[in-house]
Design a protein that fits this description.
CATH superfamily: Divalent-metal-dependent TIM barrel enzymes
Shape: globular
Helix content: 25-40%
Number of helices: 10
Radius of gyration: 19 Å
Largest sheet: 5 strands, parallel
Distance between the termini: 36 Å
CATH topology: TIM Barrel
Order of helices and strands: EHEHEHEHHEHEHHEEEHEH
CATH architecture: Alpha-Beta Barrel
Strand order of the largest sheet: 2-3-4-5-6
């Protein structure tokens, strides 16, 4: 049905609930975790795989998960696969297989958006840092046509599989990967050439870096025509004399990214997809709930259908035959 500020799907990321034991825990543990999400006001989740890997669950356990979310009144409009790059030089093949079986499980649960990226597991230095983004992580090889083409081929394969289920695939902006700048991310989408594969302009991943960065407004303007899902978070950012840069997680309303302008520009550009609230540090779930309530004030009071924008995620590309621009 048409979205308004009250009905727009805003999901909670589940990073803050991730624990090693969750995967094999009883369904009552899943319910206890997700009850926290519902208790702070969320009615939807991004099924973040750092919390639960549904691609590695059997059918009976998938049914248990479905039952838990239904009992709690939580929708599951999106699923995020994290740090499983399909071009990882060591684990790329395994990551592709994992992504494909996760996609199948997501389709069985009726999830409409699969969010994936090219970021790899944290390095030892990143794990030891207070904030992992202050240490260098793995980098995709620059100017390597073979690796670039492998990314295109594998994302296209995933996109076609998703299209068969009417699902969107969204590729996440992330530093030092082929999705690390707005221009590179757009080029990758255009090379993939599928109408159901788009971008997640997660600006926070770039704004938090302790280095010179592309202006967030320019990044967003470049990516909005390709945006089909959006993980939102914010940071303070101080650039002092001598090249000293310092960043820190912040609520959406208080950080350097002006989400009032960003949301306005996105809706004007036709964005009508799921929003996902993330936050690192402290009570990440509580801050995400604050962010969700703030976002509601920025979304249009009238339904987007009255403004000439598609009424439903399913109307964005996936209802049309897959368009290929690359053989």
């Amino acid at each position: 049905m048409p979205y308004t500020r009250e009905t727009w799907p805003i999901a909670a990321a589940l990073h803050q609930l991730a624990r090693p034991e969750v995967q094999h825990a009883d369904a009552s543990r899943w319910a206890a975790d997700l009850e926290q999400v519902a208790s702070v006001g969320f009615d939807a989740i991004d099924l973040t795989d750092s919390w639960l890997q549904i691609g590695d669950l059997g059918r009976s356990r998938l049914d248990e998960f479905r039952s838990v979310t239904q009992q709690l009144g939580l929708a599951v409009p999106a699923l995020s696969i994290t740090r499983r790059s399909v071009i990882d030089p060591v684990n790329g093949d395994d990551n592709l297989a994992y992504t494909q079986r996760t996609l199948e499980a997501a389709a069985e649960l009726g999830i409409g958006v699969l969010s994936i990226g090219l970021h790899r597991p944290l390095t030892a230095a990143q794990r030891e840092a207070l904030w992992f983004w202050t240490a260098d992580g793995a980098k995709d090889p620059e100017g390597d046509a073979d690796t670039w083409n492998l990314a295109v081929t594998r994302f296209r394969e995933i996109g076609k599989q998703a299209a068969a289920y009417g699902m969107l695939v969204s590729l996440e902006l992330y530093e030092d990967t082929y999705l690390g700048t707005s221009s590179s991310a757009v080029r990758l989408i255009e090379d993939i050439g599928l109408s159901n594969v788009g971008l997640d302009p997660d600006l926070g991943n770039i704004v938090r870096l302790h280095r010179p960065i592309e202006d967030w407004r320019e990044m967003l303007a470049t990516m909005l025509p390709y945006t089909n899902y959006w993980q939102v978070k914010n940071y303070t950012r101080v650039e002092a004399a001598g090249g000293v840069i310092s960043t820190h997680p912040a609520p959406l309303e208080l950080g350097v990214i002006n989400y009032r302008d960003a949301i306005r520009d996105a809706i004007s550009a036709g964005f009508n997809g799921v929003l996902c609230c993330e936050h690192y540090g402290g009570d990440g779930l509580g801050v995400s709930a604050m962010n969700m309530r703030y976002l509601r004030t920025l979304l249009p009071a009238a339904s987007v259908s009255e403004r000439g924008i598609p009424n439903d995620i399913s109307e964005i590309s996936t209802t049309q035959p897959v368009k290929e621009t690359v053989a």
